[in-house]
Amino acid sequence: MSRPAGVGDVLVIPGTAAIGTRCAQWSVHCRAALDIAASAVTPLLEQTDRVVPPGTEAFHINLDHVVAELMARSE
């Protein structure tokens, strides 16, 4: 929560008091940014970090496949 974090399609960027935290996601097909209060996202990010340590994401889920499935459902 003190510096930008994320590798690949999702980036979490600490912001100012006015912006809070920005979660950005992008792919070949779309881009999205979500501004959220740091107090709302910090517990989720801490839990995620414990369950899936940084650098081990690819061992847990194929995100390209998940995004493709979600995009196919939205058409």
Helix amount: 40-55%
Question: Quaternary state, please?
Answer: single chain
What's the helix-strand series? EEEHHH
Strand content: 15-25%
Describe it.
- With about 80 residues, the chain is of the alpha+beta class.
- The protein is about 40% helix and about 25% strand.
- The protein has a 3-stranded antiparallel sheet with strand order 1-2-3.
- It is globular and about 35 Å long.
- About 0% of the residues are buried.
- The model has no long low-confidence stretch (mean pLDDT about 80).
Give the secondary structure arrangement, pairings included.
Blueprint: E1 10-14, E2 21-26, E3 31-36, H1 38-51, H2 57-60, H3 63-74
Antiparallel strand pairs: 1-2, 2-3
What keywords describe this structure?
alpha+beta; 75 residues; 3 strands; globular; single chain; three-stranded antiparallel beta sheet
Short account of what is shown:
By secondary structure, this protein is an alpha+beta fold. It has helices spanning 38-51, 57-60, 63-74, and strands at residues 10-14, 21-26, 31-36.
